[in-house]
Amino acid sequence: MKLKQLIIPFLLLAATAAPAGAQRRVSADVEVKTVIGGKRTTVTKSVYCTNNGRLVTLFRTPMTYYAVSNTKGELKIYNPETREVMSERDEAMSSYTELLYIFMTGHIDDLGLGYFGYKSSATGREDGYIKKTFKPSDVNLPQVEIVYEDYLPIYCAYTSPEGRLLGKKYLSDYKTYGRFILPQRITDINYGKDRDSSVVRTIYSSVRVDVDDPNFDFQIPADAKPAKLEAPAK
Predict the structure, then answer these.
(1) What is the pLDDT of residues 60-91, one digit of tens each?
(2) Which of 22, 162, 213, 226 can bridge 179 by disulfide, Cβ–Cβ 3.0-4.6 Å?
(3) Whether pTM exceeds 0.85
(4) Is residue 231 part of a domain?
(5) What is the four-CA torsion angle of 83, 86, 92, 98, rounded to 10 degrees?
């Protein structure tokens, strides 16, 4: 094996496993296109991640509103036009589910699955790729297989407890920002019942590391009125 082949994987691990303090704040613009039943929807937003787990998301289209969450899944959605706010608490809303936060804090070995009780149960090699299987502590959750190329995750498969393929995730177009690496393109294929499926393509752009932007510190006004608002698309 060439020396270059030995050194590059080590450098990649050093970059992606950098401590959370390596970058305090990271933001990016995100475009999410979803196709279900032949119908396409597009959501654009900007995400502002702080290494303490605070996540501010400014949804731009199809409507403008803010979502502020943390690692506990405490979420507040604020509509600046009506000055209304809705509060929820759901683990699925945790900032741990934001891919930008997972990569900026160096938790790419399991893509943040460990936060939700998953543990590695098997590791193998096939055609030059590394494959790892992760099993959940909750038997009702799916098993996840992650495939790595050059120590970076490029593919995930989600399988139900009964063995049915629930979905696939493809991660590509990796680029380096500061001391971490981020995939610019993520494609999720989710299989429903009766052969129904959805395809979600997420594109990250304009990634900014440790820059000044007031949206990192955005606070929902204290006089915002409680209301029930539609939850943001993931």
Answers:
(1) 999 999 999 999 999 999 999 999 999 999 88
(2) 22
(3) no
(4) no
(5) 10
